[in-house]
C-alpha cells in the first residue's frame, strides 16, 4: 500500500516536490476506488457496500447516476449492507488464494545457498545497523571471511 501511494504521489508531482500534501487526497481517492487484483474488489465497496460515484459523475449525468431509483435507493443500500459480509468473506478467500499463488511462485524461484568455512560474504547494512547513507548509500558491507 505505501509503495503504491508513493508511486501515485510521484506521478502527480512535476518538477517541484513541495506540494505533495495537496495531491494526497486525490491519490488516496484513486487508491480506494481502484479494483485490487488480490481480491477483485475496491476497498471503498468493501467498506461501504456500494460502488463510489467519482467526482466527474456528480456534475455530468451518466447512466449510473440517472438510473438510480430514488424511492428504492434506501432499500437497495440496506440490502447491499446485508450482503456486505458475504462480499468481504469472498474477498478474503480470493486474497488468500492470491497470496498462496504468489508464495508458490516465490518459493519456486528461491535458491538454497550453502557457505563453506573461508568463503567471503557481504553483510547487509540493515543487519549491522551501519551508518545511514540514505537511498544512495551502500546496501552491504564487507567482504568478510
Automatic annotation (TrEMBL):
Signal peptide: none annotated. Transmembrane segments: none annotated. It comes from the Eukaryota. InterPro entries: RNaseH_sf (IPR036397). Keywords: Nucleotidyltransferase, RNA-directed DNA polymerase, Transferase. Gene3D superfamilies: Ribonuclease H-like superfamily/Ribonuclease H. Coiled coil: none annotated. The keyword Ribonucleoprotein does not apply. One of its GO terms (molecular function) is RNA-directed DNA polymerase activity. This is Reverse transcriptase domain-containing protein. It comes from Tanacetum cinerariifolium.
Amino acid at each position: 500500500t505505501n509503495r503504491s501511494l508513493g508511486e501515485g504521489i510521484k506521478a502527480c508531482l512535476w518538477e517541484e516536490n513541495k506540494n505533495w500534501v495537496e495531491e494526497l487526497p486525490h491519490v488516496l481517492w484513486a487508491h480506494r476506488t481502484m479494483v485490487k487484483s488480490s481480491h477483485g474488489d475496491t476497498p471503498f465497496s468493501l467498506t461501504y457496500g456500494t460502488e463510489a460515484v467519482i467526482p466527474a459523475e456528480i456534475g455530468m449525468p451518466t447512466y449510473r447516476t440517472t438510473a438510480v431509483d430514488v424511492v428504492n435507493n434506501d432499500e437497495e443500500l440496506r440490502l447491499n449492507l446485508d450482503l456486505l459480509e458475504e462480499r468481504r468473506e469472498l474477498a478474503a478467500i480470493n486474497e488468500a488464494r492470491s497470496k498462496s499463488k504468489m508464495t508458490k511462485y516465490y518459493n519456486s524461484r528461491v535458491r538454497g545457498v550453502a557457505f563453506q568455512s573461508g568463503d567471503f560474504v557481504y553483510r547487509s547494512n540493515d543487519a549491522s545497523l551501519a551508518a545511514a547513507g540514505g537511498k544512495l548509500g551502500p546496501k552491504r558491507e564487507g567482504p568478510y571471511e
